[in-house]
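Q&A log
Question type: sequence-to-structure
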Amino acid sequence: MKLAAVEAETGQPVTATKEWMPGVSRLDSLTSLRFFGALFVALHHSQSQWACSQFTDLMGQLGWLGVSFFFVLSGFVLMWGYDPLTSYRNFVLRRLARIYPMHVMTLIFSLLVFFRFGSPLAGYVGNFWGTVTSFLLIHDWWPLKPMVRQAWNGVSWTLGCEFFFYLCAPRLFARLLKMESRQYWLFAVLWAGSLAFSVLATMQHWGRVLDILEYFPVPRFLEFALGAAAAVLLKRRSFRISKMTALVVLFLPIAVYCILVPSGSGLRSAPVMTSLVTPGALLLIVAAAMADIRGDRSMLRMPVLIFLGEASFAFYMTHALLLGLVRFFVSRFFPGVTDNVVQAECFRVIYVSYAILLSCIVYYYVEHPIRARLLQAIRVLDRVPRWQLRDFLISIGEILDTVRRGRAAASAVTSNNRIAYLDGLRGVSILLVLFHHAFGAWNVMFKQTNIMQPYDHSISFFPPVAYGYLAVWLFFFISGYVIFMTLEKCRSYSEFLFRRWLRLFPAMLICSALVYFTSSCFPERPMGMPSGLSLLSGLTFIDPSWLQIILGRPTGVLEGSFWSLFVEARFYILFGALYFGLGKRRAIAILVGLFALGLYARYFHSSEILERHGSWRLLGGYADIVFGSIQSMGLWGTFCDTLDYGMFASGVFFALYSRSRQLAYLVVCGMLGAISAVTHGLADPYGFGGINTVGIAIALVIMCLIPLSTVFNFARRFWANRLFVFFGFISYPLYLAHQNMMVAMIIKVQSAYPALPAPLMAVGPIGVVVGIAWIITKFVEPLVHDFIKESKDRLSKWIELFFGKTTSTSVA
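Response status: OK
Response body:
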């Protein structure tokens, strides 16, 4: 039974909170009003950046009052939907799920931009305490310290106030439900007292007091409480207020104040303006809510405005960051243009349009999905009766199970068909590459310089360290196996390419952004500071030498380890085209032939081996003409080197053996793998001279790992242990991001602790990059993957709708 009905029957105020039921009417007009509040704040922030017309100047001067409107609206909406049966813990966690993800994402983005470009875009450069307290949402509790309160993303100071409101809201709501309706005049007295004190502080020029009244959470709590009180009164007694009356009360007092008190007089203060606008905001909210309850037609209930209102929080949190980017872009490419009012207004319209578009994308694909998962986890957590350690740990496990369950259905088939020991071998491969880069690679590369030599040569020349790079070809072997199995599941060449791109691109995008934006923190990077063009090769999977031909200028590469991704991309494109164009058998035969071609070009072209055998001289002569022409144009190493295809072909034959169990396939797999291993083991990076027997031996051992695992069960069980499988799970992001970041951190450790034993210098940096790779693989990459997949599905539906043709493909 509703509280109003109970009061009408009894004539007494209801004190039992169980009689209060949350509002059942959808207040869509209030959702739309949130968008206009955020829009006024955005106009306020853009007003001081460029020249503006009188109207824009007025809106900019008053736009910050949208924050006061947000506080009043927050109290009204939360009280309207409040359920007294909801636990305090559940209420606070649900509110945090509403604001915290966007706060953390924008804060981290601002930090990354600062590390890379030296500017946080939308706030002060925060000190240590400003950063820590921002993450904890308590940065408003340091009055008179804008470096703390408005650090990084300056608009987040309002979230500190909101967080305080959420902590106090359940107690406030319970108290409001126990108060009689005639006692609510106390709130009018409190508002009048707040206005009078603000006027006094302004006239006495109490600067510190005015700063506290404007930013400190406790004084701003009155606006939240007024909104909550209005919601209770509206439910108890329905009364009619027109929107026009509310707008007059909203704008008339503030207009009179601005006319009587010019901005340069020193007597205009934010707390006074906030107090003057609060009653009008309150009446506008009540009028819009009453119209929704009655079902009146209103422009505020248009679907597009409702959606923009739902995205208003993302708009509020991202608009200042985008403004910083636009300001940089305009000042660099259009200097002086914004001094002209007309041109400045055009830029302002473009900025607001892009800010709205960005907020819609962020809300739909990032904020809303994350909030939904958090709310699902909170429902599980709410079943735990108390905050005891054991119950808390159990609830965390249930939360993780709940989050994993959301992706379980989509990955069930893949998970069931995975070969555990192949994942373990991926882990072994990435560990060998990791140790090679941590302990040996850079010593060899820079042994003639003083850039980096933190270890003695006994570590650099230790065979597993020195030749750990050979494990990359084990990746190629596994890739050949996986690609062949994927091709047999795909219906078309385009579906296959999209699947492989969707597998590689999300982690590449995340790791490229991470490496690029954090590179300024690691000036010790062996490859130096990256340029913006260095992002192209990784994000497009195009070899830098190809990009240099296309663009006519060198682009560089972000990480040296990306070279293997370029080889893999060429293999995907070529082998996929052969498979769907010529069939499985011809594709495999051509792949083996390309490997033989690369073998000939690398080791037999123009060599004495062919000259010693007369029967091969004619073939060798023709081949010399062909290869000589290709090499003279500089195309062999850039476009035509196919020596790496041996491991891919070996993996394909291993896939054939896994399906048919025919020994002939395993023999061919072993032969191709052995030949490829020997050719790559011949490399002599240490300049010993002669045949590199150690490298050949290690390459052969690495190559034998998979065939041996097919014969011996104990080998499969060994490679499938949890440690190796874990590193196999994070192997791709770890491979992409570890190289320069890890080496730079090792150099930092060496500089700080030169007496530390050499092997221990890399322990901390390795742990850091492993932790980063796990976070990316576990949490960040799935979000980007799902976003791309959902966008592709929607695009396919739109194409089908407009052209009447289904183009969607199934993506695992």
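Response note: The mean pLDDT is 79.
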